[in-house]
Design goal:
- By secondary structure, the chain is mainly α.
- It has one domain.
- It contains eight helices and no strands.
- It starts with a helix and ends in an 8-residue tail after the last helix.
């Protein structure tokens, strides 16, 4: 596998932008969560642009890693899980179209019931993504002897991240852990790892 600086750069930028976007909600109390969500859906601003950029970068990184598993080590299941993760990320970020619709003056359902429905949809998508990430990490463990030390470290980190996400209580830790995982993938893409490393 040749070095792919495009995917590597995408992973680095994602590692920087991800915590910037997701740490902001932590500054507000849980009592304001519904109000904040309603305000988010009813406005179109720079945060929405950042949200879209994060989605595009994350999809690009997963598709880049998918190509590695598909073409280099015949890892069809990990490749399929990465495709599923990319699709789920795309669907998650499609909620941006609600903001765009409001900005264009199109009528949308209003009230807390609509907000709670959207929250439920997002939670379901996040749950499916978490199970896909867990399946990916398990599949990578099967290929453990065929991947580099960098991807071995990523595999362990991805499994920890999935377990944190499933615990709900420790899910917020992933705001810090996720950028670390992306930096590992950046190293993988820059190095162009294609063979087993002996350590």
């Amino acid at each position: 596998m040749k070095a792919n600086y495009g995917f590597g750069l995408a992973a680095i930028v994602l590692a920087i932008l991800f915590p910037i976007y997701w740490l902001a909600p932590l500054t507000m109390g849980l009592d304001n969560a519904v109000t904040a969500m309603r305000d988010e859906f009813m406005t179109l601003d720079g945060w929405d642009a950042l949200f879209a950029i994060i989605g595009v970068l994350e999809i690009a990184v997963y598709l880049g890693l998918r190509r590695y598993f598909r073409d280099q080590i015949n890892g069809s299941f990990p490749a399929n899980m990465l495709l599923v993760m990319a699709i789920l990320v795309g669907l998650f970020h499609c909620t941006l179209f609600i903001d765009i619709s409001v900005y264009l003056g199109l009528s949308l359902p209003s009230g807390d019931s609509f907000i709670f429905m959207m929250i439920a949809v997002l939670v379901v998508l996040l749950g499916l993504y978490t199970f896909a990430l867990l399946a990916l990490s398990i599949a990578m463990l099967v290929k453990f002897d065929e991947i580099s030390v960098v991807l071995k470290t990523f595999t362990i980190g991805a499994m920890i991240a999935a377990m944190f996400q499933l615990s709900i209580v420790f899910a917020m830790v992933n705001i810090v852990l996720f950028p670390g995982l992306m930096l590992l993938l950046a190293i993988h893409f820059f190095r162009g790892d294609s063979a087993v490393e002996v350590v």
